[in-house]
């Protein structure tokens, strides 16, 4: 029920219904908190950014976007991208304040799970995704959705308007490309 309700409220919000945001907020904040807890559980202990701060920042960015939301999956895909950007920006800022904040090697499984024992792991993953985007933009985008949004392949296919087979093929390509980059470094 919530999935359909979110999609309906996003549509109403796009049509200018002033009450839609008030009804949408408590529903999406619960899901955003779940996503943020997932991301933050994979960060190192003592991370200075809290899940609530991550949710608040992401939510502020989302509601201030001039966006025509297609459906619930589209909203959460954009939310996941915003959370990634916030975490990466936070890591960059923190690393910039540290002396000698160079990048370190991350193995493939760590990169896939976005685990981070240090700030530089997330930065390294972000750099890999940016490099992958130069190699294959769609594969990079689909891999990012899979990695950061919590969306399944079917939901990604629905959001992007492509087949599940295409999603699976591009994600396999992205994994192989990232694995090769990790092996070379």
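Q: What amino acid sequence fits the structure above?
A:
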């Amino acid at each position: 029920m919530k999935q359909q309700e979110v999609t309906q409220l996003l549509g109403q919000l796009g049509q200018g219904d002033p009450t839609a945001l008030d009804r949408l907020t408590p529903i999406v904040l619960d899901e955003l908190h779940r996503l943020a807890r997932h991301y933050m559980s994979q960060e190192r202990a003592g991370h200075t950014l809290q899940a609530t701060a991550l949710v608040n920042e992401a939510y502020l960015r989302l509601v201030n976007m001039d966006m025509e939301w297609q459906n619930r999956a589209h909203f959460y895909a954009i939310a996941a991208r915003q959370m990634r950007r916030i975490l990466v920006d936070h890591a960059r800022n923190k690393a910039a304040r540290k002396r000698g904040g160079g990048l370190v090697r991350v193995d493939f499984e760590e990169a896939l799970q976005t685990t981070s024992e240090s700030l530089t792991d997330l930065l390294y993953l972000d750099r890999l995704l940016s490099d992958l985007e130069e190699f294959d933009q769609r594969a990079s985008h689909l891999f990012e959705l899979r990695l950061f949004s919590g969306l399944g392949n079917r939901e990604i296919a629905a959001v992007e308007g492509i087949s599940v087979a295409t999603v699976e093929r591009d994600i396999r390509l992205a994994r192989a490309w990232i694995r090769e980059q990790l092996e070379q470094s």
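Q: And what stands out in the fold?
A: The chain has one domain: 2-184.
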